[in-house]
Write a structure and sequence with these properties.
Blueprint (H helix, E strand, L loop, with lengths): L2 H15 L21 E2 L16 E5 L8 H6 L4 E8 L3 E2 L3 H11 L2 E7 L6 H11 L9 E4 L15 H19 L4 E4 L1 H6 L9 E5 L5 H4 L7 E9 L7 E6 L3 H11 L2
Parallel strand pairs: 2-3, 3-5, 5-6, 6-7, 7-8, 8-9
Antiparallel strand pairs: 1-9, 2-10, 3-4, 9-10
């Protein structure tokens, strides 16, 4: 067994076992990476620009994906999943526990994300996330930063960029101290631009860009994950799902997981 494969084996074995019954993954598949067998109901990328050039793909899910056969999804290319855990200071996603358990049992590398609200302090939101997301053997936590036009109470609350970045730092620092690893920042083109998130050059980014490559939408920004579609279709998942790619090769993925999973 090569060093890279050994690292992947150990990391994914731990991820699958944490906080759930024994993983249902056959021993021969532990640590394996599967090529994406994805479709898209609304594809926008042309040859030479397609996310398929990246070998490691995954998804993000929330309560909208209420039916997921994680074993089938994994064998069709879902190598990682970011799972919505919390929102604001008091909302727990209705499917978080099911998704967390199912992904773990299937050997999918899993991480949890928090959707930020500007009507609650970052301290309260960090505490709520920590209360609901188990510590140990997980991908880095994610802070989801975007304007929320749907909240009946927070839709119009949009602080200036300096305040936004201050609140983010406070949340990030608390969560880093608890989980022992720095979170990833997820964001959209508009939010990134309006709040100068390029100043977070000491954090990894997960960038949403569903019509263009990240280099076009976020000029000069590096990224670890790219959310390239919200209309993906994957065997084992009922309905549409967000599709994501990891920035590097298979070997770089294994090294990244071994270094970042805690």
């Amino acid at each position: 067994m090569t060093l890279t494969r050994r690292l992947a084996f150990l990391a994914l074995l731990a991820l699958a076992a944490c906080g759930a019954p024994r993983a249902s993954v056959p021993p021969a598949e532990i640590g394996a990476l599967f090529a994406p067998n994805f479709d898209d109901s609304h594809p926008v990328f042309f040859p030479g620009r397609r996310p398929a050039r990246y070998p490691v793909h995954g998804i993000d899910v929330a309560r909208f994906q209420s039916s997921v056969d994680w074993n089938t999804a994994r064998r069709n290319g879902v190598n990682f999943a970011f799972i919505k855990a919390t929102e604001g200071g008091d909302l727990l996603d209705a499917e978080f526990k099911n998704h967390w358990r199912g992904a773990g049992q299937a050997g999918v590398a899993r991480g949890a994300y928090h959707f930020y609200y500007f009507c609650t302090t970052p301290e309260a939101q960090a505490a709520w996330f920590i209360r609901n997301v188990p510590r140990g053997n997980m991908l880095p936590p994610v802070l989801d930063m975007e304007w929320n036009p749907f909240s009946p109470t927070c839709a119009t609350v949009r602080p200036p960029g300096q305040d936004v970045r201050d609140q983010m730092r406070r949340w990030l620092n608390i969560v880093t101290a608890h989980y022992g690893q720095k979170p990833i920042i997820y964001t959209t083109p508009r939010f990134y631009r309006e709040n100068e998130l390029g100043k977070f050059d000491d954090y990894e980014f997960w960038l949403r860009s569903t019509a263009k490559r990240p280099s076009e939408t976020f000029p000069g920004e590096r990224w670890t994950f790219w959310q390239y579609s919200s209309t993906g279709i994957i065997p084992g998942i009922v309905g549409k799902v967000d599709l994501n790619a990891f920035t590097g090769s298979r070997a770089e993925w294994s090294q990244w997981v071994a270094a970042r999973a805690r």
